[in-house]
TrEMBL record:
It comes from the Bacteria. The keyword RNA-binding does not apply. Keywords: Membrane, Transmembrane, Transmembrane helix. The lineage of its organism: Bacteria, Bacillati, Actinomycetota, Actinomycetes, Micrococcales. InterPro entries: DUF308_memb (IPR005325). This is Membrane protein, putative. Pfam families: DUF308 (PF03729). The chain crosses the membrane at residues 21-38, 44-61, 73-92, 98-116, 128-146, 152-175.
Length: 197
């Protein structure tokens, strides 16, 4: 999925990796800003957010499945967890607080696992650790606030979405720049050694 950058000892992103990361960041930012600027946002918005996040994770899975052996299963499990919890949240609004908390804890845990497992092979490892930790902490907070204000869980979820969105948009922009540089340096080294395979 990524090439190793021998100069600094860390992986370099593939040129197209920034697109699925940007998609997920935009989904998170849209939901987070919705919860900030729409005080009476319907609880169904959380279910829609989980479904859209599942779709973004699926797009990422399709982008990395060939380069990161073993990541596909964990990403598919995360996608299923998010999609099922999103649907249940939409169909059973009375249980949505617990379902949302469960979705965030499980998806966060899966991303933390992905981060630890692939931190040496891909730049995504660091970002999975960040987003997974944020999601898991938000899920735990949602469980802790379950008996409080009905608005509190959406606020926690929206706040975590903003933080995840900002982290991922910065990552996507970095991947785009680093991926372009990596592709350009690979191309120039291939051109400087004609006939060498």
């Amino acid at each position: 999925m990524t090439s190793n950058n021998a100069q600094v000892g860390r992986p370099t992103p593939e040129p197209g990796l920034w697109r699925p990361v940007l998609l997920r960041s935009l989904v998170a930012l849209a939901f987070g800003l919705l919860t900030v600027f729409w005080p009476d946002v319907p609880a169904a918005a959380a279910g829609v957010y989980l479904l859209l996040t599942a779709a973004a994770v699926l797009v990422l899975n399709m982008s990395v499945r060939h380069g990161l052996q073993g990541s596909g299963l964990l990403l598919r499990i995360e996608c299923i967890v998010l999609a099922v919890c999103g649907l249940v949240s939409l169909l059973a609004p009375g249980a949505s607080t617990l379902i949302i908390g469960l979705a965030l804890v499980l998806s966060g845990g899966l991303e933390i696992l992905l981060g630890f497992k692939f931190r040496q092979q891909t730049v995504l490892g660091r970002d999975w650790l960040i987003t997974g930790t944020i999601a898991a902490v938000a899920g735990i907070l949602i469980f802790a606030l379950a008996n409080g204000s009905p608005r509190a869980p959406l606020g926690v979820m929206g706040g975590s979405a903003v933080i995840i969105g900002v982290a991922l948009i910065l990552a996507a922009l970095t991947y785009r720049t680093d991926g372009s540089r990596g592709a350009a340096s690979t191309l120039s080294s291939e051109q400087s050694l004609p006939g060498v395979e």
